[in-house]
Amino acid sequence: MRLYITTAFITLIVLIGIIGYQQQFGLDSTLPTDEEQGGLNDQIVINFSHIVAENTPKGQTAIKFGELLEQKTDGRIRVVIYPNGMLYNDNNELNALENGDVEMIAPSFSKMTNTLPTWSVLDLPYLFNTEEDVERVLTGPFGEQLLNQLGRFNIKGLAFWNNGFKQILTSGKPILASGDFKGLKVRAMPSKVLQQQFTLFQATPVATSFDELYTELEKKELNAQENTISNIYSKGFYKLQKNLTITNHGILGYAVMMNEDFYNSLPTDLQEKVIEAINEATAWNFEHSKQMNDKDLESLQLLSDVHINTLSNEEQQRWQKLFKPIYDDYRKQISETFLEEIEKEINNN
């Protein structure tokens, strides 16, 4: 009997507690929320996909941009970076951006030349003489004019980032003269200008995506490539191709892009923070990209099995004359105005 009374008493206490709770919050009321968790749910995430290693100018600048934007927005925006083609690769990242499957990418501008032929002006060999020329053009009115052309594809062009000057890496004999290219299979990005520069030297350009390049080299499908020192070192291409020639014949740069619908969905104050962060990251990029390439070159110079040559000034001048038909074709087939504008920008130093 005593056990029955005790059990009934406990049951009554529980019922009173439930009724009191329901009166306090209502039968259909929402439970109190964790304020900290609510803040996390409100955080905007930018997924940033790119295809190179983290220890490269693009990889480090992407990290810098993410840090700056998170600081400037007090954590309201978080940038998640996917390097090395982890999320999207060379072939599908642009479609992913246009479709809104990813918020940001930074492809080489050479990969945009089939879509926007005017951009191939940046691929013209020996167009730029110094890193300062590159920065002045890509961060000035001419670069802005190119970025604005992305609007028709639902893309917000944010900036151009620099990797550096391209060199020649081979698995056979070193390249010391234009005739050394004859018969070689050379990896080139899908840019008509880049491919034409090798056909002029009687080589066969092969359009191989960056994420497949190492495998193709292992299979000995390619004899040579053009690339920056930072990419050659960070991706370990020097392990398969041992002869490096410093030519500085062209630049490798990137167009930093954001899905325009996503950008427009941001409150105005956050749009401003995105632009602030991208501008500061871009300045950081141009300040540090050459330093990173120089440091990686020093690392390559320490390797006894990597042979480094520098193209002579006389041979550089010979190459420039041989490349003249590429300039003529650009003027006739694409835009004489664009070429005149960029040459004027470079020469008005």
From TrEMBL:
Keyword Cell inner membrane carried by entry: no
Gene Ontology CC annotation, any one: outer membrane-bounded periplasmic space
Superkingdom to which the source organism belongs: Bacteria
Entry keywords, A to Z: Signal, Transport
UniProt cross-references to InterPro entries, sorted A to Z: DctP_fam (IPR018389), TRAP_DctP (IPR004682), TRAP_DctP_sf (IPR038404)
Gene3D superfamilies in alphabetical order: Bacterial extracellular solute-binding protein, family 7
Keyword Zinc-finger: no
Biological process, per Gene Ontology: transmembrane transport
Pfam families the UniProt entry points to: DctP
Family designation: Belongs to the bacterial solute-binding protein 7 family.
Record-given protein name: C4-dicarboxylate ABC transporter
Native organism: Viridibacillus arvi
